[in-house]
Amino acid sequence: MASLRILLSAVLLSITMLLWPPTSPAGPAGPKSCAELMQEFYEQVARADFHDYLQKEMGKDFKTAQEYIKEKLPALKAACPTEANSIRDIENGKYLKQLAAKRERDKKAHRHIKKDDPESDADMEQFLEVQR
Q1: Which of 6, 14, 58, 72, by CA, is between 20 and 30 Å from 89?
Q2: Taking a C-beta distance cutoff of 8 angstroms, is the pair 96, 65 a contact?
Q3: pLDDT, tens digit, 9 for 90 and up, residues 2-47
């Protein structure tokens, strides 16, 4: 009798799991949380800042990240008043400074690798050739 109950419970649980609506992003998307909005905002700012950096390296002066912040930050502030510290970091430029500092650390690390292993450039060229 007990084994029949266990079997019946397992079958009912399996049916319930198959019929339960999906909770993945493929399902109906509800409003995004402030954490998700902030994450997307940070990613977009980082991309724009990297684009600015590349343009600056080429001798051009771009301010895409700052323009993006000016355009999108007021709406984000209104939607997420609980994220005041993150918004303050963006407003006062601390986040852009962190991105620049990370870029410099990465460049410095790359220089050390390049100095320690002069063949790494040849390896990278071969890797890029394969990718093309």
Answers
A1: 58
A2: yes
A3: 666 676 576 566 666 666 665 555 444 567 788 888 899 999 999 8
User: Does the pTM exceed 0.70?
Assistant: no
Identify the CA nearest to 47 among candidates 67, 33, 61, 32.
Answer: 67
Using DSSP's 3-state secondary structure scheme, residue 57 falls into: helix
> How many Å apart are CA 111 and CA 119, to the nearest integer?
13
pLDDT, tens digit (0-9, with 9 covering 90-100), for 59-93: 777 788 888 888 988 988 888 888 888 888 888 98
> Burial level of 73, CB count in 10 A (0-12/13-18/19+)?
middle
Q: Which residue has the tokens 């970091």?
A: 89
Domain positions in the chain: 31-131
